[in-house]
From TrEMBL:
This is 8-oxo-dGTP diphosphatase. Its EC number is 3.6.1.55. Gene3D superfamilies: Nucleoside Triphosphate Pyrophosphohydrolase (3.90.79.10). It comes from Antribacter soli. It comes from the Bacteria. The lineage of its organism: Bacteria, Bacillati, Actinomycetota, Actinomycetes, Micrococcales. SUPFAM superfamilies: Nudix. Keywords: DNA damage, DNA repair, DNA replication, Hydrolase, Magnesium, Metal-binding, Mutator protein. PANTHER family: 8-OXO-DGTP DIPHOSPHATASE (PTHR47707), NUDIX HYDROLASE FAMILY PROTEIN (PTHR47707:SF1). It holds the Pfam family NUDIX. One of its GO terms (molecular function) is 8-oxo-dGDP phosphatase activity. One of its GO terms (biological process) is DNA repair.
Length: 160
C-alpha cells in the first residue's frame, strides 16, 4: 500500500468562534505548484506532534504565533487526501502574535471572505476542504444545496 506523508495545515481565520475571513497563501515554489493557493503548513517532522509541527510551520512560513481551534476532520480516517503522496490534517487557527507575511514558500497572502474563495486557484486537493469550511462561516453546506433545490421542486399537492 502506498503510504502518504502527513502534512499539517491551518485554516487561519480572523475569529475562531465566528470567522468571516480565511487566510489563503500563494505558493512560490516548487515550480509545479507555484501560483496555486493553499493553507499554510507543511510536513510534520519525525518526533513532532501534528500540533507542534503546525506551530513551527506557522512561525517559519508566516512569522506568527497562533492559537489552534478545532480540527476540520476529513473523510479519510480524519484526514484529507490531498495528493497521491500526501494526507493533510487541518486545524482552525487565530493569530495571537505578529502579522502574517509570505516569508518562505509563498509570495502572496490574502484574507478572503467566502464569496472570494472561488476566485483563487486553490491546489486541487484543497478544493473539497475549502467547501467543507463554508458552514463554519455561516454559509450553506455544499451538500445542503441540492437538498434545498429538491425541496423547492417537490410537488406541494403531494402528501408529506
Ligand atoms: N502546506 C500545504 N501543502 C499542500 C496543501 N495542499 C496540497 O496539495 N499541498 C501539497 C503541496 C506539497 O506537495 C505538500 C506539502 O509540502 P510542503 O512543501 O508544504 O512541506 P514543507 O513545508 O514541510 O516543505 P519541505 O521541507 O518538504 O520543502 O502538500 C496545502 O493546503 N498546504
Amino acid at each position: 500500500m502506498l503510504s502518504r506523508r502527513l502534512v499539517v495545515a491551518a485554516a487561519v481565520v480572523d475569529d475562531l468562534a465566528s470567522p468571516t475571513r480565511l487566510l489563503a497563501a500563494r505558493r512560490s515554489r516548487p515550480a509545479e505548484i507555484a501560483g496555486r493557493w493553499e493553507f499554510p503548513g507543511g510536513k510534520a517532522d519525525e518526533g513532532e506532534t501534528p500540533q507542534q509541527a503546525l506551530h513551527r510551520e506557522l512561525w517559519e512560513e508566516l512569522g506568527v504565533r497562533a492559537e489552534l481551534g478545532d480540527e476540520l476532520v476529513g473523510p479519510d480516517h480524519g484526514a484529507w487526501t490531498i495528493t497521491d503522496r500526501h494526507l493533510m490534517r487541518l486545524w482552525f487557527a487565530r493569530v495571537t502574535e505578529g502579522e502574517p507575511l509570505p516569508l518562505v514558500e509563498h509570495d502572496e497572502l490574502r484574507w478572503l471572505a467566502p464569496s472570494e474563495w472561488s476566485g483563487v486557484d486553490w491546489l486541487d486537493g484543497d478544493l473539497p476542504i475549502v467547501e467543507a469550511l463554508r458552514p463554519r462561516f455561516g454559509e450553506p453546506s455544499p451538500l445542503a444545496a441540492p437538498l434545498f433545490a429538491a425541496s423547492l421542486l417537490r410537488d406541494p399537492t403531494l402528501p408529506n
